[in-house]
Amino acid sequence: MRSAARRKLLAAVGAGAVAPLLGCGGGGGDAPAPSPAPAPGPAPTRTWRMGFSPNPPRQTVQAVLQGIDLWSQRAELAIIHEELPWRDLLAGMSPEAILDRDKMQLVAYMKGKGAQLVFMGELNDGLDRAQEAPALRNAGRSLAEPAVQRLYRDYLLAVDRKLQPVMLGLVAESNLIRAAAPALYPAVRQTANDTAAALRAAGSTTPLMASVQVEVAWGRLGGNGTFAGIDTDLADFPFMHTLGLSSYPYFGFSEPEDLPPDYYTRLVGNRNLPVMVVEGGWASAGAGTLTSSPARQARYITRHAQLLDAVGAKAWLHLVFADLDLAALPPPLPANLPLFASIGLVDSNFAAKPALASWDSLFARRLV
After folding, report:
1. How high is the pLDDT of residue 173?
2. I need a surface site. Which of 5, 37, 175, 343 has the fewest CB within 10 A?
3. Better-scored residue on pLDDT, 40 or 343
4. Residues 6+ apart with CB under 8 A from 137
5. What's the rounded Cα separation, in Å, for the pair 258 and 256?
């Protein structure tokens, strides 16, 4: 579901769209700068670094740069969360050449703003976890093929060498993939673990991550409401240095305050396992049968900080900074995309929503 937006919006970031203009200065914007930190004294702290992705509301270089310029004022991390460029890889283009074309200048721009990079690779279709990645389907190929698995390994090895992320994710929402695509899941597990082994054999010391879908673990997304946990995921991906969390709780709860205080801690149990949120949020507008409001979204930001504190989280990557400008996106659009279009902290024109003030008040906490 989320990757529909990723695929469309990151097209503005990739394929050289941003590279020629990165030297032309920032994009400005209407969102305010973060409020200054409070005066010295007993003030709240946070263990979690905060960040966003470069996904823009519209597929323009200006929107990409404007977003980065605004969110980098209230973030320590940047995340690139994407399906691989399978078409180019299958055509024989080297991972290094693809990254030189699509990512090097973008990442340098974000790092120049003070943001460290987190990279998450997708192993199947994030829009429909029951299926292969769209580019593989279109080519009649499958992750079950050893040659395709090798392409994934080689690309992630190149990402690690050239982009130098501080955290590298090898599989996203593993429990949702297992539930939706049981026939594909063995290839997902094999590819992620082989990639981890290849990274270590190459001498990489980058911490490795796998993510789970929190609502699935709680039985609130495609389940019967019974807590399922993540034991299988932890066993299947033993390379996991850090547990990534994907959470869109407005699909399972009416109010942010309804989230139980152990929403994250119950997943971890008594394991000494670092945790970071790598995607998620709460819509600020209703869509379909869902109802929400800007005030409800702002309350979620505050509530979410309490859940992060409870688990001693290491990072909070909100992923989407600005709402999607659905009218500006090329058709056809997925029918469920409006459900995710308003999870940004600013609107599609970068005007602040109430949630941004909630975020900024948390960013002002002293990082410990």
Report:
1. 97
2. 37
3. 343
4. 125, 131
5. 5
- Residue 31 CA to residue 348 CA, distance in Å, equals 11
Residue located via tokens 């979690």: 48
Chain segment 85-104, per-residue pLDDT in tens: 999 999 999 999 999 999 99
**Could you give phi then psi for residue 290, rounded to 5 degrees?**
-85, 145
Which CATH architecture describes the domain 2-14+43-367? Alpha-Beta Barrel (3.20)
Spans of all domains in the chain? 2-14+43-367
Q: Cα dihedral angle (59, 135, 159, 96), rounded to 10 degrees?
A: -90
Give the side-chain half-sphere CA count within 13 A for 140.
0
* 121/334: higher pLDDT: 121
Contact 51, 315 (CB under 8 A): yes
pLDDT per position as a tens digit, 174-227: 999 999 999 999 999 999 999 999 999 999 999 999 999 999 999 998 888 899
What percentage of residues in the chain have a pLDDT greater than 90? Answer: 82
